[in-house]
């Protein structure tokens, strides 16, 4: 019996999702793309899961689209009849990750190349090991991105750096990715999943309804111009904050103060 292409481990309110094609560097075959999409749909439907961690088995996070599969199937690249981008807006993995209402922490354990790079920046927070490297090789393969990389990357690291990466296909080291602000932090390989799990626990400790609401507020505003985003924030804030009672705020005050003391001691 063959191994599943994706593994899901649930603990408390956290789901750890592991791409599981280590022999193929977790390359995105049709089966794996479908499994990622269906997994995140299932996690969104599970009211007990509020944070997800996405990582890869073996030495790679994800080497991108399965070029062996693409090279043997004339229909695999195009936009129709099962092509890579044919399910955008419905069942492609990046869209499905984006529809998960809780935070997704990318634990980038190794290379994240092209489609794997797109998966990485679909996450809300990126923690990477010292072994991680990033590359956009779309132009070297001879195809263009369809899962958002051409737009997200420039917004994350600036248009000049994004053009350097995408128009050369050069690799970006973990440290350079950290220096450029692409990732939140770099940790030793053995500390990667524990660090991601601790961050997930920190997220679970906030007021429950604020977790998805604040993520949505940030994402919605980021997609707008600044003036419109400020109006969006005011609308969200007015609708949400009127339901918060003063005694609830007072009750949470001591916990916030204690947390501040612990994190500065």
Description:
- The chain is of the alpha/beta class and 265 residues long.
- The protein folds into 2 domains: 6-204, 2-enoyl-CoA Hydratase, Chain A, domain 1 (Alpha-Beta Complex), CATH 3.90.226.10; 210-264, no CATH class.
- Helix content is 47%, strand content 15%.
- Strands 1-2-3-4-6-9 form a 6-stranded mixed β-sheet, with helices on both faces. It has a 3-stranded mixed β-sheet with strand order 5-7-8.
- Helix 6 packs across helix 7 and helix 10 (210-222) packs antiparallel against helix 11.
SSE run:
EEHEHHEEHEEHHHEHEHHHH
Low-confidence stretches: 86-90
How would you characterize the largest beta sheet?
6 strands, mixed
The proportion of residues in beta strands is: 15-25%
Determine the CATH topology of the largest domain.
2-enoyl-CoA Hydratase, Chain A, domain 1
Care to count the β-strands?
9
In whole angstroms, the N-to-C terminal distance is: 52 Å
Number of domains: 2
Q: Indicate the structural class.
A: alpha/beta
Task: Report the CATH superfamily of the largest domain.
Answer: 2-enoyl-CoA Hydratase, Chain A, domain 1
CA-based shape:
globular
Count of helix runs: 12
Q: In what order do the strands lie side by side in the largest sheet?
A: 1-2-3-4-6-9
CATH class of the largest domain: Alpha Beta
Radius of gyration: 19 Å
Mean pLDDT: 90
Going by CATH, the architecture of the largest domain would be Alpha-Beta Complex
- The percent of residues in helical segments reads 40-55%
């Amino acid at each position: 019996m063959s191994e599943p292409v994706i593994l899901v481990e649930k603990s408390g309110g956290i789901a750890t999702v592991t791409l599981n094609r280590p022999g193929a560097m977790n390359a995105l075959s049709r089966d794996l793309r479908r499994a990622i999409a269906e997994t995140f749909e299932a996690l969104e439907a599970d009211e007990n899961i509020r944070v997800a961690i996405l990582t890869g088995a073996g030495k790679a996070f994800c080497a991108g689209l399965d070029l062996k599969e693409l090279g043997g199937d004339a229909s695999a690249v195009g936009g129709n009849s099962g092509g890579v981008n044919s399910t955008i807006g419905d069942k492609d993995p990046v869209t499905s990750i984006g529809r998960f209402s809780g935070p997704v922490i990318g634990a980038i354990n190794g290379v994240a190349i092209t489609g794997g790079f797109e998966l990485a920046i679909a996450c809300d927070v990126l923690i990477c090991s010292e072994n991680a490297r990033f590359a956009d090789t779309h132009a070297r393969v001879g195809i263009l991105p369809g899962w958002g990389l051409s737009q997200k990357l420039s917004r994350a690291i600036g248009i000049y750096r994004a053009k350097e990466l995408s128009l050369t296909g050069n690799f970006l080291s973990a440290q350079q990715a950290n220096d450029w602000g692409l990732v939140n932090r770099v940790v030793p390989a053995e500390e990667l999943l524990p660090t991601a799990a601790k961050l997930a626990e920190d997220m679970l400790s906030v007021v429950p309804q604020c977790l998805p609401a604040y993520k949505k507020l940030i994402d919605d505003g980021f997609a707008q111009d600044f003036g419109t985003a400020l109006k969006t924030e005011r609308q969200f804030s007015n609708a949400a904050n009127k339901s918060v009672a003063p005694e609830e705020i007072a009750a949470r005050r001591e916990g916030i103060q204690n947390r501040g003391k612990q994190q500065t001691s």
